[in-house]
Amino acid sequence: MSSDFSKKFQKTVSYCVAFMYNKEVKRAVGKNALPTEKVAPNMEIGQRIKQLRRAQKMTLEELARRLGTTKQTVSRYEKGIISIYLDRIPVIAEALGVSPSLLLDLDGEAPTGLPLLTGLTPSGEPCFEPSSLLCADAEADFCLYAHGEGMTGGRIFEGDLIYLCHAQRVENGALAAVTTGDGVLLRRIYQNPEHRQVILKSEDPRIAPEVYVGRAREQVRVLGRAVAFYGRIE
């Protein structure tokens, strides 16, 4: 057995143990997973955590907040200095909006394109999947597929591919990916500080604007600003 094959085999076995603890397959393997076991300090996992964090323009502080730990601990994860308990792998993956298998690189392939926003995690964070999609016309951080008829008046149809830049605030009238806690929407956003309003407008006149007033504005979260889209000609 070659040394390279031996290393890959040992890596696969240790990673599979961690993957089996993932809540998505826990029912299939029973409740005898080993959450107190550790993945040995590993520079590759640390580099993937760092890569995925930076791809979402997420700071060490933000990832630490989502994980309920300190930025120093996250930094040590990324540098491969300290071990990670197996039950933290699904937690870290969810905080980064990816699957545990991607975080552990079980498929042996790193994402080559822009992250694809597919929805929200159970905790309400954006959920991304790796993709081979690229944007040649503008700088973009991630992409998503349009769904529904809310933007047909703006020539964006079901299944069109939207490219976006990460943003928490956008100018009035900008097309943005937003969430109010129940899925992701493409809407034009208007803010009226004087009246303490946030208004989300579709491009379909049949759909009434959604108006959030006062503390209800906190329900609206901007995920990114649209910079380009590809679609069919109607």
Walk me through this protein's architecture:
- By secondary structure, the chain is an alpha+beta fold.
- The protein folds into two domains: 3-110, 434 Repressor (Amino-terminal Domain), CATH 1.10.260; 142-230, Umud Fragment, subunit A, CATH 2.10.109.
- Helices cover 29% and strands 24% of the residues.
- The chain has seven helices and eleven strands.
- It has a seven-stranded antiparallel β-sheet, with no helix packed on it.
- Residues 1-36 have low confidence and may be disordered.
Features:
434 Repressor (Amino-terminal Domain); 2 domains; globular; Umud Fragment, subunit A; disordered N terminus; alpha+beta; 11 strands
Q: Give a count of the beta strands, DSSP E runs of length 2 or more.
A: 11
Spatial ordering of strands, largest sheet: 5-6-11-7-8-9-10
Q: Please compute the radius of gyration using only Cα atoms.
A: 20 Å
Helix content: 25-40%
- Flag low-confidence runs: 1-36
Which geometry do the CA atoms define? globular
Mean pLDDT across all amino acids: 78
**Category by helix and strand content:** alpha+beta
At the fourth level of CATH, the homologous superfamily of the largest domain is lambda repressor-like DNA-binding domains
Kindly report how far apart the N and C termini lie. 59 Å
How would you describe the oligomerization state of the chains in this entry? single chain
Task: Write the H/E string, N to C.
Answer: HHEHHHEHHEEEEEEEEE
Number of domain modules: 2
Strand content: 15-25%
CATH architecture of the largest domain: Orthogonal Bundle
Please write out the topology.
Elements: H1 3-20, H2 23-29, E1 38-39, H3 43-55, H4 60-67, H5 71-79, E2 84-85, H6 88-96, H7 100-104, E3 116-120, E4 126-129, E5 142-145, E6 161-166, E7 174-179, E8 184-192, E9 197-201, E10 210-213, E11 221-230
Antiparallel strand pairs: 1-2, 3-4, 5-6, 6-11, 7-8, 7-11, 8-9, 9-10
